[in-house]
What does this fold into?
Amino acid sequence: MSWRSQHRSSGYRRLGGKRSSLLQQIVTKLTAPHATSQSLKTDNLRIRFLSVVFLVIGLLLIGRLFDLQVVNGSIYAALAADQHDLYQKLFPTRGSIYVAETGADSQQQLYPLVANKTMFVVYAVPKEIIDSTTTAEKVFEVLGLSENQDDLTYVDRSSSTWSLTTSTANSAQEIKRINLVNKWLQVFLQKDKSYYPLRDRVELEQVNKLKALALPGIGFSEKDYRYYTEKGIGGQLFGFWGYDGDERKGKYGLEGYYDDILAGQMGAIKSERDARGNMIALGDSELTEKVDGADLVLTINRAIQFKACEALKKSVTDHAAKSGSIIVMDPYTGAIIAMCSVPDYDPDKYYEVSDANVFNNRAIFDAYEPGSVFKVVTMAAAIDAGKVTPDTTYNDTGFVDYGKYKIRNYEDKTYGLSSMTKVLQYSINTGVIYAMQQMGILNFVDYVKRFGFGEITGIELQKEATGNIANLDRKGEINKATATFGQGITVTPLQLMMAFCTVVNGGKLMKPYIVAQEIRNNEVIKLTQPEFVKQVISAKTSVTMKAMMVSVVDTHVKSAAIAGYRVGGKTGTAQVPNKTGGYYPDEVVIGSFAGFVPYDHPKIAILVRIDQPVSNRTGEGVAVPVFSEVAKFALQYYNVPKDKP
It folds into this structure.
């Protein structure tokens, strides 16, 4: 063996020896009892640590799953639902408007006057329509002609593509049909259009028929509409639910005044989103449930409301009058039993109204010079002030001289020695001026304001006017003198009705109201109680005035009498001021009547106003017949006992 080989071999032995010795030491340590115990402890710690980690992760996952599926499950259920379900979760249902009626079982039942109705918009997507002519014909077979005249706009036949012509039509109805189908056909051929509404307010039955036809390019979308169940009983009372830009809101009347309460509160979904705007499934989310609108229960009596509107319309029509209004009220509570104005409109078709003034409720908005009905206020004030009595007399010469001006009686009549009772019976202008002079000008002005004139009544209807009594604050007695018989100042019918009720109910001015209850989820959330405003005249004065007004009907306005009842009231025939100054000729008047029945404890008070009648131009001629018809009906409806032999 060479030296190198021997040396290498020896080196290997030495290295191998060392390696063997090292391995033996390791084995010895590992096999030693204390080393084994230490290793096991380390492994157990690791296992425990990992177990805790996995347990924490598991709990976090379970907690998050609980949050997603239970706590916020409704959010993801809403997002996973179809469009209809999501709409139902987020968009509140608008409250309905009811009247309470007593059923056969003597239990009160709610009858809807304004409700919600889900209908459909039928639309076309022209680029998806395959056979335009057939589609137009098929759609017409289902939808037919509507009441909307826009549908009937004639479309000229301007292309050889037309398959329909009016040349062979043998009736006006057929011409309308062809015109409408041609109009739709013209649109269907414009393939660049992506959407075109054909008809709104379509019933489900018609939609189902269209769906069965499976016409390409014809679609449907649900839409909530307001449905006014009774026609012709007070569109101005209800108002309507219309568009304000892209948003639908209540406008005018009850719909406008109570819009926030009827509308409810929108729901909402809030969630964390990524950079692309997509919802992060594990992010924080929140669902705010909608709050449906509250329902309103009115003080209106449906039967009396219908009768009042019917009688008013008849008078306006029979006398070719410009307009009219009527209010029926419980004089002791201020509750409105009926309220109607003419001309009226259909809230279902508010968009067809060409004159926006029609939306205003004349009973609360249209201030006017009330004329002789106002003499009730003047006389009540003078008697309450203790300056005159029903038997107080003065000598009527037919006029009162104010230098440059002379105020005369109606038709220039002269009555000579007259009592205050006769002043009311014959509506003597100079007599109420005398009464005002006896109590003093300042006292008279104070009473007028205490009766509530010159300020809104606070009725829960949108667009109430204040009237104008500024003349009372001007210098000169003549401005107050003309006001004593309702000239030179303006009032709304509701203000005058409230003052009249104050005179007959014991002298208490009550706040008028038309909503008896607010209801949500079948629970009453607000119950309206009669609200006393102030004591204007004494109960004694009230009794005196009632007796004087009964004498007015018994001796002078006998057409207002109702067999078996003591009826009280006062007529008015007022001139109409000209915007350019002065007054229109005597034939342009406003005829009115305010009355109550029965005498002892009046069940109802009624104010009727007829504007600018062409025939029979007196309050007795145009307004009293309306009062009598409505009063008789109400007395019978309430079964009020007779109080007069």
Remarks:
- Confidence is low (pLDDT under 50) at residues 1-19, 79-87, 152-169.
